[in-house]
Amino acid sequence: MKINILRAILIFLLIILFIRIFNFSSQDGETSGNLSREVTETITKNIKAIQRLEKSKKEIVLDKIEHIVRKTAHFTLYTMVGILMMSLMTTYDIKPKKKIGISLAVGVLYAISDEVHQVFVPDRTPMIQDVFIDSFGTIFGICITIFVIRCYRTIRNCVN
Questions:
Q1: Cys staple from 103: which of 16, 28, 86, 131, with CB 3.0 to 4.6 Å?
Q2: Residue 127 structural domain
Q3: Domain annotation covers residue 19
Q4: Is residue 47 part of a domain?
Q5: pLDDT tens-digit series, residues 33-78
Q6: Is residue 59 part of a domain?
Q7: What is the pLDDT of residue 1?
Q8: 70 lies in some domain
Q9: With 80 as the cut, is the pLDDT of residue 160 above it?
Q10: What's the number of domains the chain is made of?
């Protein structure tokens, strides 16, 4: 019974995350760009070296940081996909390689569908680079989950 509740929670969280990713991708280019710029400005507002730059140089620096912010957001969201998928897979009695394979497949397929979705959104462009970043995020999330589970099992075995 407890395992079914855990599975339901993980599936619910995955659905919420997939909806959030879909909503981000549904933003037109201007809205998405404004959000990224707002986050970038928030991050850099207390960095005096950036704030002291003349306007044109500051814009160049902010554009470069904004690119990093956007790619970090991709990686982070899909790291969460990897964590949630691998956590869900560990609730099933299947071979470890299959758990990893299913988790990775879901992350990669959703990343591909996310980029295809952007074809239909004004001023957005699908990028294969983003699929790779998303896939590496998924792999990282899977690795984090495997590490945490192994640590938990090691500690549990030492205590017992």
A1: 86
A2: 2-31+75-159
A3: yes
A4: no
A5: 999 999 999 999 999 999 999 999 999 999 999 999 999 999 999 9
A6: no
A7: 76
A8: no
A9: no
A10: 1
